[in-house]
């Protein structure tokens, strides 16, 4: 079992409240990622689960047992930190075996568990080497091996890949996903990198200012963000936000004027809000990857000030009249955009999100189960 429940958990440092009444249920075997900007409370929340920070209020329950007052070693968890925290004078074998030796496990049990962990992490040939002879990715795998041998109910990862270069991070994301599938254990992972969150998680918990902004599957957060914060945080480059005026609201959605052009957007608007929205200013969200070259339901002529050529994509940034923010667009492949040359780009209402004056989203009328492309026969 590896079930976790957070019940109205709070954390104060003096007069400053950094975690504000967080409630969350994590099921056995789930891979849950806490994501958010620096200072949102994600690492503090993880350390509270681990028992490394005192809980100011609320309850932390692991497998139906309240653990607020239990020492970390008695909570059935193992934690992997951002720093590898390896003993440089010990071999890889002894680093992995260290928690077992602290527990005074039998020698044959130690060898069996270390060998098993080494095989899972592809470290068999490195067991007699010192950490100084390993790459960053290998050192992080040793740290993970030290957690595996404890056979915890829940694995906790606190930004474990942030010290690695980009290529190693990509490799380790794959390794950790494979490890989760192989062990079937509950894993809670903290990161500020939304790419890690999108590629690894069963569910993502987006934190902002000590609160949970949204919890959901990666594609749910991408296609149906509940507010402007989640919409801007999930997705890279970030979503464009444009002011728009509501013309009409019906059962099929909302008609708005944006950039002096009219378009229909399929969103659900509660009946009691419809009349008050006519003439109101809302925020229209469009992801850069949903902007197309040429004509759209809303079209504009722009002069890109910055163009980034990535080979598989071309990313442009342009200024719009009356806006201080750059409008970003992503075009497939290599697009040759001349320096200072005007281009026409556009987007359709089907790809737009609408947010009210408080930043809350009107739910889009899309079925996520029908959004996956069919495999060729």
Tell me what you see in this structure.
With about 375 residues, the chain is α+β, with helices and mostly antiparallel strands. It contains nine helices and 21 strands. The strands form five sheets. Strands 6-7-8-3-9-10 form a six-stranded mixed β-sheet, sandwiched between helices. Strands 13-12-11-14-21 form a five-stranded antiparallel β-sheet. α2 packs across α3. It is globular. The model has no long low-confidence stretch (mean pLDDT about 90).
Question: What's the average pLDDT?
Answer: 91
Number of helices: 9
CATH class of the largest domain: Alpha Beta
Round the Cα radius of gyration to an integer and report it. Answer: 25 Å
CATH architecture classification name of the largest domain: 3-Layer(aba) Sandwich
Strand content: 25-35%
The CATH H-level homologous superfamily of the largest domain: P-loop containing nucleotide triphosphate hydrolases
End-to-end separation in angstroms reads 40 Å
Largest sheet: 6 strands, mixed
CATH topology descriptor of the largest domain: Rossmann fold
Q: Based on CA inertia axes, which overall geometry fits? A: globular
SS-based class: alpha+beta
Number of strands: 21
Percent helix? 10-25%
């Amino acid at each position: 079992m590896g079930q976790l429940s957070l019940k109205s958990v709070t954390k104060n440092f003096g007069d400053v409240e950094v975690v504000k009444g967080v409630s969350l249920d994590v099921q056995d075997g789930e891979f849950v990622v806490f994501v958010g900007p620096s200072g949102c409370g994600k690492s503090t929340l993880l350390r509270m689960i681990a028992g490394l920070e005192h809980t100011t209020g609320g309850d932390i329950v692991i497998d139906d047992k309240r653990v607020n007052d239990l020492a970390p070693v008695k909570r059935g968890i193992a934690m992997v930190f951002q720093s590898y925290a390896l003993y440089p004078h010990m071999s890889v074998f002894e680093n992995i075996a260290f928690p077992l030796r602290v527990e005074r496990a039998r020698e044959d049990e130690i060898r069996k568990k270390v060998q098993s962990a080494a095989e899972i992490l592809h470290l068999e040939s490195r067991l007699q080497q010192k950490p100084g002879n390993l790459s960053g990715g290998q050192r992080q795998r040793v740290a993970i091996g030290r957690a595996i041998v404890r056979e915890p109910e829940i694995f906790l990862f606190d930004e474990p890949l942030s010290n690695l270069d980009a290529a190693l991070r990509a490799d380790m994301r794959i390794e950790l996903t494979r490890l989760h599938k192989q062990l079937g254990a509950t894993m809670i992972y903290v990161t500020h990198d939304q790419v890690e969150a999108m590629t690894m998680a069963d569910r993502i918990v987006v934190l902002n200012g000590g609160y949970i902004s949204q919890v959901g599957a990666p594609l749910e957060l991408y296609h149906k963000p509940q507010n402007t914060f989640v919409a801007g945080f999930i997705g890279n480059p970030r979503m464009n936000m444009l002011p728009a005026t509501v013309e009409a609201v019906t059962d099929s959605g909302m008609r708005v004027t944006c950039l002096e052009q009219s378009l229909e957007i399929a969103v659900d608007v509660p009946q009691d809000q419809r009349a008050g929205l006519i003439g109101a200013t809302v925020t229209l969200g469009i992801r850069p990857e949903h902007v197309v070259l040429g004509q759209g339901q809303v079209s504009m002529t722009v002069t890109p000030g910055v163009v980034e050529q990535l080979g598989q994509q071309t990313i442009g940034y342009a200024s719009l009249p009356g806006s201080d923010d750059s409008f970003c667009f992503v075009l497939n492949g290599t697009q040759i955009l001349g320096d200072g040359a005007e281009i026409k780009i556009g987007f359709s209402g089907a790809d737009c999100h609408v947010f009210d004056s408080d930043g809350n989203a009107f739910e889009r009328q899309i079925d996520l189960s029908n959004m996956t492309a069919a495999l060729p026969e």
